[in-house]
């Protein structure tokens, strides 16, 4: 069953009273109360010796609590194969009796540790009035899980049950207990406690006690509910398990088979309208355990399976058993849905050779369209198994009937069990589908035809009709507009005729929340043509190209509560996190690189659109974290602000008003500086929002002629970020600085800035007026932390940005070893047989990592001849979610693994801030490449670009993969690994895990990458690169960043008269040649010339004129271009805005010559840039030229990897006549 959390499932605690200590517990007064169940691992994972340690821990712990019938009640449950109550909440009314009962606890033992079963058990039997709970009286319900190893069964349903029951869940783990699993079960990560060995359990007592006391005293409470959704696929089938129950099978073997069947059932979508299950045993006769119609829910089926005992019997008559199930169990009377054409599947599990003949019964099975899976032990006859199985691929022979071998074949059995249908056909249910299309300028007229074609392609694949699938369509921007309703068109042809005429609505805004509310109120109702009351599945397909400008969460939740499945397709500037919240669950989100990719998407969408239904919506108690932060606003109070201080004061007032100001939340300090510092309010002076806001309103400007930023930073560290001034830096509370600078500092900033960073304070700088960017960059970790105001009167425009940053910037935990780890997986057809083993390897590796938003982040990308991101570095922030996403991976498919293109994709689309990468913050970037074949394209160029950007690739080659290629990709050749088969991946798992976890930033800094060997002689390593740069007045203030980019790009190229040649041209109204392609013959000469560049000036930006100039005058043989020799020609255009003249004709002419243009522009029209560019994927937009360093690697990749032939192929697909020759020119237009 596809299960996903619609919103974070983990409930996060909230402390409502100050002074609550995490390390100091006090004996609580008599009126404090709680009901606590201790759920203890009684399996062999724990063992009798460690169980004694747990028992002693409980005794010591309970001694510290006020246990009693009116105070804290205690119950204890052990679990292994099944849960067992030791005593209930109301069994013992006094502390003495409870302690005696705990001291007398005995170890139950058992092979399995079924935590999921145990969680369900405690909710149903203990957190109830009958179990002694006082939940009806509002007494807090608490579960303390003590685990020694991973769960043997599925835990999701049990976890949801706990949260629905508003239970505080604590998880204590030792030995092999997976922290990710404990985090999934616990109410919050803070309620997870682990130690390597049970003998260290005593170390946890103080921490656990503090939280239990907090719950009992109501200092820790749960907040209002949100929702959890689950999606299931309409995939009807009737599956019968026929199990060898003969006496020849040992009890341990039968138990392993029983648990294996449980595992299979856990992973199926059980229900009366979904998959039905029946089970029978056989020996000399057949004994049905239950029929298809016996149990309608998975929980009931699982309970019945767990109760199974071997029937016994000396003979094993498999042939007779096959006849019995065909004639007596696959019948309507036994619940089989023959009239609906539901597939019939039989899973036979046998431990020996049949005493009767099986060939004829097996043939009868096949004639009756019963698909038989044959699972046999070593003692079974292989010929019999092959005869009985529907196909040879459905014969399974585990090494023995024990837990590990049976579980190992689970994936290979489940896939056909879920998908095979034989000759029968299951008809799709009718459904109502509304398309909600972004009709704003985010899409634009150029891209809207792609959107229209996408909708038409989807509709063409649907069985449209008033009794089948109904379709409606709404466009939205600022407001939503109905194009047609569900009952407007009765035929596909009429519907398609309307779609062909569909035009873009237009509008600058994008109010997605309003649009969601509109379709809910006007379309998913009977008058709008909806059949929602007839229980016809309701689907909404949202396609958007930008972020919503209004609130959308409540509207999305309202749709989900009604069971409406919202699918989200995002393109352009769509926000992945936003779409995952809007979608019914994250599995229904589809992100596209660009609009031109939309026509291919319907192939992925048709199956879920026509088969998925709501699997239920559950309300779950969650809370939001109470965030503690200390924020100092240190503002320029010098003469720079005379006459404009009121604007700044109003800005400060509005920012503070957005923050959660209170003593135990966010504390605020305010100071002004000029030649010295005047503290207006310390952290411990105005600790409530009304107080600080009232104070800020009355603030007056300090004044002062000079501006000493360095002194101000030193003074802040010395007298404001200290305990005596109310700072909680020593308590580990994050410290922030918002520094406003409106002029150049008169003193040195460098050393105070270094001390500030060393202290752990996170600075943001508001740049205004004549502030020196070079000075400000010394203060911040990266230019992204500088917010520039166009003028002081417009500083209010920065309010949303700074508020968002102050609320959301992640704070690294002390000593945390943050890393961003990307897995790049070969998903081509050659991997198909080993894909499950590949996933297992990645999963095990992830389970060894300390996954968290401030620690290790993980992304996964699949590739073949195309590349598909599975999830990004900011998609999942806990290990359980990452592992779940890995388990859901499906093979991409495709003929050839183009590893080079995939490496380039990762650099351009994954290792960027918006996708969760922390490269700009200096966090190590690790790329683990797993491939089973030689790349179909060149890997040298992309690998070199990655490594120059300090990305650390680790190449793992399997089977036919080329080890030399792996060494070329890897950061150093020693990082490359080769294994002969997928199964051998487990042999290198520990080495790779150690390398990933133990590599530190310092080690990587000292480790020099080994770059690939130079290309073979010839024109392959020759390039002509022209930089065409904006030298106008508009670019002048940030010209240094343009210059720096050219210098860095040149440094990465093999510059020489016979290798890469470089030219630079400036433009504004006209053009100015700085130097030509044949002017300099060495890298040093080019870089010296670049360093001397100064802006030429000019008011106008005539890009069209500049393109025409380079086309006619620069890409010519006499001026150094080797265009006639077939050397690639590249043009990189850097512009500070929209062109003042037309660019169309000049761009077309340039590309006719075979030049590959890469435009980089600040706040320019995207359509104009696309017209200029080689391809839309090579359009680079920035909001400030300070962001140019982030483009360096993305720009280098195409320059170093694209060949003349590839450029010609891309240009041939452009909407103008293809170039007449194979030359390509590299021109960098800046």
From TrEMBL:
Gene3D superfamilies, sorted: von Willebrand factor, type A domain (3.40.50.410)
Listed PROSITE patterns: VWFA
Keywords: Cell adhesion, Collagen, Extracellular matrix, Repeat, Secreted, Signal
Record InterPro entries: ECM_Assembly_Org, VWF_A, vWFA_dom_sf
Protein's UniProt keywords contain Transferase: no
Stretches assigned to the VWFA domain: 35-212, 238-413, 432-609, 630-802, 820-992, 1024-1195
SMART domains associated with the record: VWA (SM00327)
Broad class of the protein's primary localization: secreted
Signal peptide, first to last residue: 1-25
Keyword field contains Secreted: yes
Gene Ontology BP terms: cell adhesion
Subcellular location field: Secreted, Extracellular space, Extracellular matrix
A GO-annotated cellular component: extracellular space
Record protein name field: Collagen type VI alpha 3 chain
């Amino acid at each position: 069953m596809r299960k996903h959390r619609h919103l974070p499932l983990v409930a996060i605690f909230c402390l409502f009273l100050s002074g609550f200590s995490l390390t100091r517990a006090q004996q609580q007064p008599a009126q404090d109360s709680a009901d606590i169940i201790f759920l203890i691992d009684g399996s062999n994972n724990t063992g009798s010796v460690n169980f004694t340690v747990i028992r002693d821990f409980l005794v010591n712990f309970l001694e510290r609590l006020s246990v009693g019938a009116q105070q804290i009640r205690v119950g204890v449950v052990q679990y292994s194969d099944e849960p067992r109550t030791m005593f209930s909440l109301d069994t013992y009314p006094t502390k003495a009796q409870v302690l005696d009962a705990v001291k007398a606890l005995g170890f139950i033992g058992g092979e399995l540790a079924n935590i999921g079963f145990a969680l369900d058990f405690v909710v149903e039997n203990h957190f109830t009035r009958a179990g002694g709970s006082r939940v009806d009286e509002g007494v807090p319900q608490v579960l303390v899980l003590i685990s020694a190893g991973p769960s043997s069964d599925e835990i999701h349903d049990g976890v949801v049950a706990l949260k629905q029951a508003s239970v505080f869940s604590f998880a204590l783990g030792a030995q092999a207990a997976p922290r990710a699993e404990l985090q999934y079960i616990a109410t919050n990560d803070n309620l997870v406690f682990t130690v390597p060995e049970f003998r260290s359990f005593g170390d946890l007592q103080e921490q656990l006690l503090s939280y239990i006391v907090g719950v009992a005293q109501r200092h820790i409470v749960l907040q209002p509910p949100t929702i959890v959704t689950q999606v299931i696929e309409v995939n009807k089938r009737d599956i019968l398990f026929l199990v060898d129950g003969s006496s020849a099978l040992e009890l341990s073997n039968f138990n392993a088979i029983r648990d294996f069947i449980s595992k299979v059932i856990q992973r199926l979508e059980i229900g009366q309208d979904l998959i039905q299950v029946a089970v029978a045993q056989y020996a000399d006769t057949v004994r049905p355990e239950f029929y298809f119609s016996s149990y309608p829910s998975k929980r009931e089926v699982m309970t019945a399976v767990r109760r199974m005992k071997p029937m016994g019997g000396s003979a094993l008559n498999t042939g007779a058993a096959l006849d019995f199930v065909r004639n007596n169990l696959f019948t309507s009377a036994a619940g089989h849905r023959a009239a609906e054409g539901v597939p019939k599947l039989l899973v036979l599990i046998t431990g020996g050779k049949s005493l009767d003949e099986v060939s004829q019964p097996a043939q009868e099975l096949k004639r009756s369209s019963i698909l038989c899976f044959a699972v046999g032990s070593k003692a079974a006859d292989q010929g019999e198994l092959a005869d009985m199985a529907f196909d040879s691929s459905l014969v399974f022979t585990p090494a023995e009937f024990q837990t590990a071998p049976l579980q190992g074949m689970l994936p290979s059995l489940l896939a056909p069990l879920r998908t095979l249908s034989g000759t029968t056909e299951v008809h799709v249910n009718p459904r109502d589908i509304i398309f909600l299309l972004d009709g704003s300028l985010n899409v634009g007229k150029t891209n809207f035809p792609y959107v229209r074609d996408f909708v038409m392609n989807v509709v063409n694949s649907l069985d449209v009709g008033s009794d089948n699938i109904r379709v409606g369509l709404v466009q939205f921007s600022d407001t939503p507009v109905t194009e047609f309703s569900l009952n407007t068109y009765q035929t596909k042809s009429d519907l398609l005729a309307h779609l062909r005429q569909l035009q873009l609505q237009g509008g600058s805004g994008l109010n997605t929340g309003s649009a969601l509310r509109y379709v809910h109120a006007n379309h998913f109702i009977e008058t709008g043509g909806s059949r929602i009351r007839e229980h016809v599945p309701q689907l909404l397909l949202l396609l958007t190209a930008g972020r919503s400008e209004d609130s959308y969460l409540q509207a999305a939740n309202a749709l989900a509560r009604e069971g409406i499945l919202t699918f989200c397709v995002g393109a352009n500037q769509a926000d992945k996190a936003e779409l995952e919240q809007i979608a019914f669950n994250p599995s229904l989100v589809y992100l596209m690189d660009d609009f031109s990719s939309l026509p291919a998407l319907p192939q992925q969408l048709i199956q879920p659109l026509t088969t998925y239904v709501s699997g239920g919506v559950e309300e779950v108690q969650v809370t939001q974290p109470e965030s503690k932060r200390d924020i100092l606003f240190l503002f320029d109070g010098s003469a720079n602000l005379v006459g404009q201080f009121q604007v700044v004061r109003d800005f400060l007032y509005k920012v503070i008003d957005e923050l959660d100001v209170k003593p135990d939340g966010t504390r605020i300090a305010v100071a002004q500086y000029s030649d010295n510092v005047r503290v207006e309010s310390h952290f411990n002076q105005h600790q409530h929002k009304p107080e600080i806001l009232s104070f800020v309103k009355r603030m007056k400007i300090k004044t002062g002629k000079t501006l000493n930023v360095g002194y101000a930073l030193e003074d802040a560290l010395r007298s404001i970020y200290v305990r005596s001034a109310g700072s909680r830096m020593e308590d580990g509370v994050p410290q922030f600085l918002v520094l406003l600078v409106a002029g150049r500092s008169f003193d040195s900033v460098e050393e105070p800035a270094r001390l500030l960073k060393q202290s752990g304070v996170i600075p943001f700088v508001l740049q205004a007026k004549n502030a020196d960017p070079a000075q400000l960059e010394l203060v911040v970790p990266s230019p992204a932390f500088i917010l520039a105001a166009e003028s002081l009167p417009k500083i209010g425009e920065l309010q949303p940005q700074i508020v968002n940053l102050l609320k959301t910037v992640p704070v690294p935990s002390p000593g945390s070893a943050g890393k961003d780890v990307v897995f790049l997986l070969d998903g081509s057809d050659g991997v198909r047989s080993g894909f499950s083993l590949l996933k297992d390897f990645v999963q095990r590796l992830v389970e060894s990592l300390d996954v968290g938003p401030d620690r290790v982040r993980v992304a996964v990308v699949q590739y073949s001849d195309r590349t598909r991101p599975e999830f990004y570095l900011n998609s999942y922030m806990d290990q359980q979610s990452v592992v779940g996403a890995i388990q859901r991976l499906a093979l991409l498919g495709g003929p050839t693994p183009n590893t080079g293109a995939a490496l380039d994709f990762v650099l351009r689309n994954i290792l960027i801030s918006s996708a969760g990468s922390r490269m700009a913050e200096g966090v190590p970037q690790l790329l683990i490449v797993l491939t089973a074949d030689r790349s179909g394209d060149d890997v040298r160029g992309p690998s070199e670009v990655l490594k120059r950007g300090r990305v650390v690739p680790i190449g793992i080659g399997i089977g036919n993969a080329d080890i030399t290629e792996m060494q070329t990709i890897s950061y150093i050749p020693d990082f490359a690994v080769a294994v002969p088969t997928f199964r051998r991946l487990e042999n290198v798992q520990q080495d790779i895990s150690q390398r990933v976890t133990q590599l530190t930033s310092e080690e990587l800094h000292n480790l020099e990458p080994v770059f690939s060997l130079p290309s073979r002689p010839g024109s392959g390593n020759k390039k002509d690169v022209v930089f065409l740069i904006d030298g106008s007045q508009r670019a002048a203030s940030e010209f240094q960043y343009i210059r720096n980019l050219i210098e860095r790009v040149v440094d990465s190229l093999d510059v020489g008269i016979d290798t890469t040649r470089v030219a630079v041209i400036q433009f504004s109204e006209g053009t100015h040649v700085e130097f030509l392609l044949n002017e300099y013959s060495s890298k040093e000469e080019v870089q010296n010339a670049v360093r001397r560049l100064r802006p030429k000036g000019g008011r106008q930006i005539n890009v069209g004129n500049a393109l025409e100039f380079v086309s006619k005058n620069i890409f010519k043989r006499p001026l150094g271009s080797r265009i006639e020799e077939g050397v690639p020609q590249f043009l990189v255009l850097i512009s500070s805005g929209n062109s003042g003249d037309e660019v169309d004709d000049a761009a077309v002419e340039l590309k006719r010559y075979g030049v590959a243009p890469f435009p980089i522009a600040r706040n320019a029209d995207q359509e104009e840039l696309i017209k200029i560019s080689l391809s839309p994927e090579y359009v680079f937009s920035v909001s400030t030229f300070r962001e140019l360093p982030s483009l360096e690697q993305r720009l280098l990749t195409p320059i170093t990897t694209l060949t003349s032939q590839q450029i010609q192929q891309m240009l041939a697909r452009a909407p103008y006549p293809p170039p007449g020759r194979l030359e390509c020119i590299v021109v960098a237009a800046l």
